[in-house]
Amino acid sequence: MLREVKYLNLLNIDVPSAAAELYKKDATYRTQTGSLEIIVTMYNEILRTLLPVEKPLLADRIQRMNKAL
Questions:
Q1: Are 1 and 19 in contact (CB under 8 A)?
Q2: Between helices 17-24 and 2-10, what is the axis angle to 10°?
Q3: pLDDT digits 0-9 by tens, 31-58
Q4: 18, 33, 44, 62: most buried by Cβ count inside 10 Å?
């Protein structure tokens, strides 16, 4: 939606006020999305590189992370 609002603005087409209000926070949403992407990448890398003998030792922490995510 943010992309659509951006291009509609560039074409000088009116957008609904709710969409315009959301678009004002565009930088915040992009920052949050980037941060989440980093978190997910790191989490997946940890799970991918975890040795089979380590998984039972960290099972409770992995479960808590899964619940939080």
A1: yes
A2: 100
A3: 999 999 999 999 999 999 999 999 999 9
A4: 62
Q: Which tokens belong to 4? A: 């659509």
Q: Global pTM?
A: 0.67
Q: For tokens 């992995």, what's the residue?
A: 62
Chain segment 1-13, per-residue pLDDT in tens: 889 999 999 999 9
- 3-state class of 57 per DSSP? helix
Instruction: Sketch the domain layout of the chain as residue ranges.
Output: 2-68
